[in-house]
């Protein structure tokens, strides 16, 4: 869509909260309030404006909030101040760095040299985190990576450091990116990797048919550099409810930590595509059966870090088919690990139509899922902030959940 937005968001409900003494109660909801901002997006947008308008407005505070002697700012005020700072950083990146990633300026005839560039800028992984998040990202999509860094992706963000967010478990996000056919873009990626130290660049062209190579790259890098207790694979257009995800993993770890985990939205009875023109095409030479074994959808699946060595050993025995999530499913079958279905991972993907996706859902439906598909660019920041509010002030959604327009949507499929 690519046009500029001059409105940060128009919302269905304006949340007005009173809680300076620590009592977090919802006072009232106002329909159809307009919150105007000065955000200009120079990156290519892939959302309906409806999605942006549906976001819950941030709680507004004065630019110079008054602090009573002997007291401190409420956590809502602190959250809002951090949000303003984060959005400003996003806007700055959008108007400066992202311009260098514009597609029209990056096409040239030079093909990338096939070298192991990812070895030059290995992300730091010390101390080893409880959860490692591997995000598949496209070379061009700098603003997707930036918005994830500014929201749920980095533990050291101030918005993730308040007393209200202590999870007791650490996490680290690493982006997996292949090369483009633009030497200029490849140089930009190297610079980005050097600055942020959170990108692993593979020595292959970043195409859909090479997604399995990207997944294999993540397994190899993780085994060598970051053997976390658990690993989540997701995509740059997916939102991770990181605090709830960590709690969910912690609960599993306490009760079933000795058991290998492979969980997600499990696909069953999936037929192998034999049409050579289809992007999911797999030859009978690579996989002779007509149906795949059950596997977790690629938008988000989590597995035990202790499986890395076995998975890489399986990759030497199982052909590398170009359907990356089915490929991991074959590795898991090879090592004898059965997938576990979670209704909280990608819950709406197979019950919402492609036309509407998340655009018509009430934002309160984003409170419970652990991984959501269809969130990009600044919506990562907005969704992360809104989910924080809904999680720690649950009364926000008590009214919305009882409305007829909310009840018509299935919460999982």
Automatic annotation (TrEMBL):
Compartmental location: Golgi apparatus membrane
Signal peptide: none
Membrane-topology descriptor: Single-pass type II membrane protein
Record carries keyword Magnesium: no
Predominant subcellular localization, coarse grouping: Golgi
This protein's UniProt keywords: Glycosyltransferase, Golgi apparatus, Membrane, Signal-anchor, Transferase, Transmembrane, Transmembrane helix
Membrane-spanning ranges: 12-33
InterPro entries reported for this sequence: Glyco_trans_31 (IPR002659)
One of the Pfam families matching this protein, by short name: Galactosyl_T
Keyword Transmembrane assigned: yes
EC number: 2.4.1.-
Gene3D superfamilies per UniProt: 3.90.550.50
Protein family (similarity comment): Belongs to the glycosyltransferase 31 family.
Name the record gives this protein: Hexosyltransferase
């Amino acid at each position: 869509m690519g046009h500029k937005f001059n409105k940060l968001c128009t919302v269905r409900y304006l949340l007005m909260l009173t809680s300076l003494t620590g009592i977090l109660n919802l006072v009232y909801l106002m329909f159809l309030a307009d919150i105007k901002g000065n955000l200009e997006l120079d990156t290519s947008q892939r959302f309906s404006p409806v999605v942006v308008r549906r976001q819950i407005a941030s709680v507004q505070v004065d630019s110079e909030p008054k602090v009573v002697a002997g007291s401190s700012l409420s956590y809502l005020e602190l959250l809002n101040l951090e949000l303003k700072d984060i959005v400003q950083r996003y806007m700055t990146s959008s108007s400066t760095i992202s311009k260098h990633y514009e597609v029209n300026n990056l096409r040239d005839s030079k093909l990338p040299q096939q070298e192991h560039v990812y070895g030059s800028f290995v992300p730091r992984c010390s101390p080893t985190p409880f959860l490692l998040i591997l995000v598949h990202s496209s070379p061009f999509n700098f603003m997707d990576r930036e918005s994830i860094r500014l929201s749920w992706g980095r533990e050291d963000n101030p918005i993730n450091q308040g007393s209200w967010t202590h999870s007791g478990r650490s996490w680290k996000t690493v982006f997996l990116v292949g090369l483009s056919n633009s030497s200029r873009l490849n140089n930009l990626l190297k610079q980005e990797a050097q600055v942020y130290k959170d990108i692993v660049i593979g020595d292959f062209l970043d195409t859909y048919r090479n997604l399995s190579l990207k997944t294999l790259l993540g397994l190899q890098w993780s085994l060598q550099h970051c053997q976390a207790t658990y690993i989540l694979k997701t995509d740059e257009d997916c939102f991770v409810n990181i605090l709830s995800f960590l709690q969910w993993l912690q609960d599993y770890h306490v009760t079933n930590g000795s058991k290998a985990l492979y969980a997600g939205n499990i696909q069953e009875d999936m037929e192998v595509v034999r049409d050579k023109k289809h992007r999911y095409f797999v030859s009978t030479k690579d996989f002779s059966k007509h149906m795949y074994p059950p596997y977790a959808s690629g938008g988000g699946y989590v597995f035990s870090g202790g499986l890395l060595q076995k998975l890489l050993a399986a990759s030497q025995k199982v052909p590398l088919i170009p359907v990356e999530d089915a490929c991991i499913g074959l590795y898991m079958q090879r090592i004898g690990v059965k997938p576990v279905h979670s209704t909280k991972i990608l819950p709406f993907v197979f019950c919402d139509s492609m036309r509407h996706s998340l655009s018509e859902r009430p934002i309160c439906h984003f409170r419970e899922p652990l991984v959501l598909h269809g969130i990009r660019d600044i919506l990562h920041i907005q969704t992360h902030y809104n989910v924080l509010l809904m999680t720690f002030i649950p009364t926000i959604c008590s009214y919305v959940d009882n409305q007829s327009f909310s009840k018509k949507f299935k919460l999982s499929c």
